Amino acid sequence: RIKRGYEFEAVVKWFADRVDMIMLLFDVSKLDISDEFRRVILAVKGNDQKIHVILNKADRVTTPQLMRVYGAMMWSLGKVIDTPEVSRVYLGSFWDEPLHNDEQRKLFESEENDLYTQLACLPRSAAVRKLNDLIKRARLAKVHACLLDHLKRKMPSMFGKDKEKAKLISNLTAVYQEVAKEK
User: Fold this and answer.
1) Is 94 among the domain residues?
2) DSSP 84-113
3) DSSP code per residue over 24-77
4) Taking the complete model, does pTM exceed 0.90, yes or no?
5) From CA 50, how far away is CA 20, in angstroms rounded?
6) How many domains, in total, are found in the chain?
7) CATH number of the domain bearing residue 108
8) Range of the domain at 163
9) In this predicted model, what pLDDT tens digit does every residue of 32-69 receive, in sequence order?
10) Shared-domain flag, residues 96 and 46
11) Where is the DUF5600 domain (predicted)?
12) Mind spelling out the 3-state secondary structure of 120-141?
């Protein structure tokens, strides 16, 4: 573990909550997920729709090897990312050098174009995501207000406040269900 003057995971989470895209970069020859990389992946949890996985230097292996590498990478990621949806994976060789293996040239070019298109669409998709986040926060605020209103109505005005408060706290699940039925 590297000694830093700050909480690494908290900083990663802070950035992840504010960026429009998170790219997890893998190399075909280095698929292992280090402890630090695992902590980064866990810190970005909750931002699954922003995560895009890039398998770089895919031109260094043959097609059968690429299939094995892809499977191994997805298996390793599956142990860290606990989500029912599979993250988008871009295969390719993302640098200016010519391809070492032309077997999958069309695939790599298509994947590269998809990634660049995704990057070009970021300003528009970021606006939509921010609007969706605002709507989600507004709904949560409404739920919070309904819950507080319900709890206030259930509290006695004079005597037995502590007893009723303890009763409501101990039965919060029932309170949630009751509020849901009201609204």
Assistant:
1) yes
2) SSPPEEEES--SSSPPS-GGGHHHHHHHHH
3) EEEETTB----HHHHHHHHHTTT-GGGEEEEEE-GGGS-HHHHHHHHHHHHHHH
4) no
5) 6
6) 2
7) 3.40.50.300
8) 128-182
9) 888 899 999 999 988 888 899 999 999 999 999 999 99
10) yes
11) 126-182
12) HCHHHHHHHHHHHHHHHHHHHH
